[in-house]
Design goal:
The complex is a heterodimer of chains A (296) and B (185). With 296 residues, chain A is α/β, with parallel strands linked by helices. Chain A folds into two domains: 5-122, Glutathione S-transferase Yfyf (Class Pi), Chain A, domain 2, CATH 1.20.1050; 133-295, Rossmann fold. Chain A has helices spanning 13-17, 19-31, 54-71, 80-95, 97-108, 123-131, 133-139, 175-181, 207-222, 233-241, 243-250, 261-269, 286-295; strands at residues 5-9, 35-38, 75-77, 120-122, 148-152, 186-187, 227-230, 258-260. Chain A has a four-stranded parallel β-sheet with strand order 2-1-3-4, with helices on both faces. In chain A, strands 6-5-7-8 form a four-stranded parallel β-sheet, with helices on both faces. In chain A, β5 (148-152), α8 (175-181) and β6 (186-187) form a beta-alpha-beta unit. The longest helix of chain A is centred in the first third of the chain and has 18 residues, at 54-71. By secondary structure, chain B is mainly α. Chain B has eleven helices and two strands. Chain B has helices spanning 21-26, 42-46, 48-52, 58-67, 70-74, 87-91, 98-113, 118-130, 138-146, 157-166, 169-174, and strands spanning 115-117, 177-179. In chain B, strands 1-2 form a two-stranded parallel ribbon. In chain B, α4 crosses α7 (98-113) and α8 crosses α10. Chain B is elongated. The N and C termini of chain B lie close together (11 Å). The chains are: A alpha/beta (296), B mainly alpha (185). Chains A and B meet through α1, α2, α3 and α9 of A and α3, α6, α7, α8 and α9 of B.
Chain lengths: 296, 185
């Protein structure tokens, strides 16, 4: 079998704030034989510009897609926002001839063209579809038996369903749950799993996202999950970075460590917490790591 | 949840209604199906933001478009509260892309009212200058090597500037006004 090879689209939030996600993702993908090619050059996926100018956002997205086409490689994103934006742009520009001509008119100015020849995938899709469950299972050297976690798949990985064509159910996403189970950990169900983290509007209003995140943390706490697992830097920042502020605002203690999925998988593969930058999490996973060391 | 307030009806005057507005909107990508909305309210019922904000009601936004209440819509702070979770798009029985309607209206506010939330101006300005929407500090770039990470992809700023020019947004950005936060009640 040929080695899966992807163009890594890092986005903006991860290099700015969350190297722990990048480091852990590169470690586990390397171990699983996925080859990552760095972007030849880069611009933001376009997502943050969509609220103010759709055409600008689409052109920014299309430029990235065109770069990948020139490399002849499918894109792998770690961020739900980048995935959603690039994937939707890829699909709409393929299907809508009029829109494609307009955007290609813009790209012509910089000597580029969108052709629609590559696919956009998120880390979760690459793990589930290109690497496969068997291979991941084989890579687990230290199963996290007895560890109980909850997952937050996030919105742009599964919605809008008409644009996301990777076979997960937006009403009850199971791909990330299945990937978690491969580590040996138990993945708990909880109330309103598909609820949005609220982070995209935090720059204009803090009250609503904080209430949403507080409710999520309450539901996760109610099922006694030892950690929450995310696959998006926006969601991660909302639950980890903002957790102490949410605790202060609502005078409620959560203390729930929030891990990027490749950190959880990495632990089960035998990487050390230091190698996976678990020390960089805002909510210290000390107790969680104690529990893990008991089962290993 | 906030307490239920007494309902005060707001009277719509005929001259506030622009009968062509819905047709203009329906030409924008994502807003094509606005005329199919029959006001069932599924979008509002399933909206996570509406649960915590009386101000943000996607069903009302769709109705206001149909009625042609353009001025009221474009000065409505609630537009900026959609978190783009896209639940409304998935749940609409008529296939109306509600969240895309909100995006179309936001875009119109930027273009016609020339005002956007400050955060978006900052993101756009940083993107134009650096290719990334956040200023990634030199210390962070240096730390990457120590963490065994390759250097960050270098942005093509010439291309980015050209894209801002050709879409007309660098012009819009020049004299755009901003506001800071939006209330949810």
């Amino acid at each position: 079998m040929t080695k899966p090879k992807f163009l890594l689209f890092l986005g903006c939030v991860i290099p700015y704030r969350l190297p722990s996600y990048e480091v852990s993702a590169r470690k586990v993908l390397g171990k699983l034989g996925v080859e990552l090619v760095e972007m030849p050059d880069f611009n933001c996926c376009g997502f943050p510009m969509d609220p103010i100018d759709h055409e600008l956002a689409l052109t920014l997205a299309a430029r990235n897609l065109s770069l990948a086409e020139q490399e002849g490689l499918n894109i792998l994103t770690l961020c739900n926002g980048c995935f959603g934006t690039l994937n939707k742009a890829n699909k709409t520009l393929r299907e809508d001839k009029e829109l494609r001509e307009k955007i290609n008119g813009n790209l012509k100015e910089i000597g580029m063209e969108f052709k629609g020849t590559i696919e956009v995938k998120h880390l979760v899709h690459v793990l589930a579809e290109d690497v496969g469950f068997e291979k991941i299972k084989d890579s687990v050297k230290k199963p996290l038996t007895g560890i109980r976690v909850a997952q937050h798949t996030g919105c742009h990985l599964v919605r809008p369903a008409k644009y996301v064509t990777h076979g997960d159910d937006p009403e009850n996403p199971t791909m990330l749950k299945d990937l978690i189970k491969l580590t040996g950990a138990e993945c708990l169900d909880y109330m309103d799993e598909t609820e949005c983290c609220g982070n995209p509007i935090i720059g204009v209003n803090e009250e609503v996202p904080f209430q949403l995140a507080k409710e999520k943390l309450e539901h996760v706490k109610a099922v006694k999950a030892q950690a929450l697992i995310t696959v998006c830097p926006f969601c991660h920042m909302m639950y980890d970075l903002n957790q102490p502020r949410i605790e202060r605002t609502f005078e409620e203690k959560f203390g729930i460590p929030v891990l990027h999925y490749p950190q959880l998988l990495g632990l089960a593969m035998g990487f050390t917490p230091e190698e996976l930058l678990l020390n960089e999490l805002r909510v210290k996973p000390t107790e969680f790591l104690n529990q893990i060391s008991k089962v290993l | 949840m906030s307490e239920v307030k007494e309902y005060v009806p707001s009277v719509i005057k005929a001259d506030e209604m622009d009968p062509k507005f819905k047709y203009e909107i329906s030409k924008m990508p994502g807003a094509e199906k606005i005329m199919l909305c029959f006001q069932c309210g599924t979008c509002t019922a399933d909206c996570p933001i509406s649960r915590f904000s009386d101000l943000y009601q996607p069903r009302r936004i769709a109705h206001m478009i149909q009625l042609g209440l353009k001025d009221k819509l474009l000065s409505n702070d609630a537009l900026w509260l959609c978190s783009t979770c896209f639940t409304c798009i998935d749940h609409c029985p008529q296939g109306v892309e509600i969240a895309s309607l909100v995006r179309v209206l936001r875009n119109l506010v930027a273009k016609e009212k020339k005002v956007i939330p400050l955060v978006y101006k900052e993101l756009a300005t940083t993107l134009m200058k650096t290719g990334y929407v956040y200023v990634i500090p030199e210390s962070r770039r240096k730390k990457r090597a120590a963490q065994g990470l390759p250097p960050l992809p270098k942005p093509n700023l010439e291309h980015v500037a050209k894209i801002f020019d050709v879409t007309g947004f660098s012009k819009v950005l020049e004299d755009i006004k901003t506001f800071d936060k939006v209330k949810s009640e």
